[in-house]
Amino acid sequence: MRFFLFLMIGVLLCHNTKCQNTDDNLLQTLKKEIFKIKVYDQQKDQRILMYKNKLAKSTEGDKVTRYTLLDCLYEEYKNYNFDSAHIYISRLLTVSNELRDERKLYETKIKLGLIQLSWGMYKETFDCIADLAKHKLPTDIRADYYSLKYRAYQNLATYNTDKFYSEANQRESVKALDSAAHLYPTGTYMYYKSAAQFQLISGKKSKAIELLRQVITDSNVNYQRRAMAAFDLSYLVGDKEKRKLIISAAIYDMRSSTKQTLATFTLGKILYNEGRLDDAQLFLKTAIEQAKLFGSRLHEEEASILLDQVTAKILLNLANNKNQALKIMIGLVILALMGLTGISLLVYYQLKKVRIREALVQEKYQHLDSINKRLFEDAQIKEKYIGYFFKIISGYILKLEKIKRNTERKLKVQDYDELLKLAGEINIKKERDDLFYTFDNIFVKLFPNFVKSFNALLNTEDQIWPKDHEILNTNLRVFALMRLGINDSQTIADILETSISTIYTYKNRIKSKSLVDGNDFYRVIMDIKFGGM
């Protein structure tokens, strides 16, 4: 009996050791791939340069060739650099219109919608979906259209926590996914992907896992798609396989020069939780570098915050290790050399250094806490503003729909006088004033002490107070927008419908009259407290 017990324990230990070795081997492979990132990027840059040279040599009249080359450049950039991808998809849309090729135009609009969605541009994405819905699309393009529609509604359902809207968006996403899964040809990557997602939503987790495994093991599927499949599958399996799949996804991302480093960041987080701080630090630094290249500030900030925590914990561990060593040394010194004042002083100074290090670590933690509070505040502000302005946009859509129906009705009966009357009823100034009024109301609710705190920075004669019928005025709106994080003068000018020189004048005139130093003026504005709602 004992023999069999020992045998079972031995088998389990061997199995666990084998699994650990497999994971460690994959981790070593990933570390080697990190040092090859520049090589993979150089290969991609060479392909991009080749396409750019061909595009430069092509004639303006050869629209088909220019379309093909612009499409190749978009495909190279879409997971490599967002700004460049957006530039080339815009140029691709222009050429598609010039070609008057409906199929190419539909394909390009779907690609534009996907890149807008990946950047959180929901309104533009749904405008694109609405435009495509007006056309009779070919079967394969219809599949891509439904795939885009599924992702858009799924993202919106995840973002919008309101139960009514969330459930409605979820229903729309499931309908679109069902359509996509039935339209994609069996055996293709998009078929497996959409079918797996539909099976998962339908509660058939094992079937979804089976479909995703087929993608990963298919040698015809490129690295970038394998990475997405491996990462999606990692959420459906146990912890042991999850870790292995995330490492594999990170390896595939490196080899395909994919800069949306979700797998690398997730792996860094897992290793941090496991206490493997050096490895976690390496992968988080890699994730930050990749996010910078892609242009994703959100991913960069998220990884930076976790990296700061890892670094602080490493410093704390070093301090604790040194502190423990010093305690042992003190004990030995006391036992062996009682009364040696010199050694006691030496130990005292060493302990003092440790306390300084501990104080530095504590300061770092406080800094991280400050950053987390600011991020939380920004998230609350954005959530409330987006919610309010979604309501406003919905109201405008209803108004436009009503105007459209009235216009169509009067055109049919050729009642042009009524049409002119209808146009005269549209008061653009009132609409703009209503928009500013709504902005002012929301802002003052979020920052109830803003006007008072702002004027505290100025002499009494220079203070700016709203009139009786105003909540904010133009001067105050400039700095209200800055407090929301909008610092670009051109953007502020566009929002307030004025010139950029006027914005510069407002800023500089008020800054020059400030009671605080000019270099600190904008920082003090940003420190005005958020009051919530």
From TrEMBL:
DUF6377 domain boundaries: 253-493
Regions that span the bilayer: 328-349
A Pfam family assignment: DUF6377
Keyword annotations: Membrane, Transmembrane, Transmembrane helix
Superkingdom in the source lineage: Bacteria
Name of the molecule in the record: DUF6377 domain-containing protein
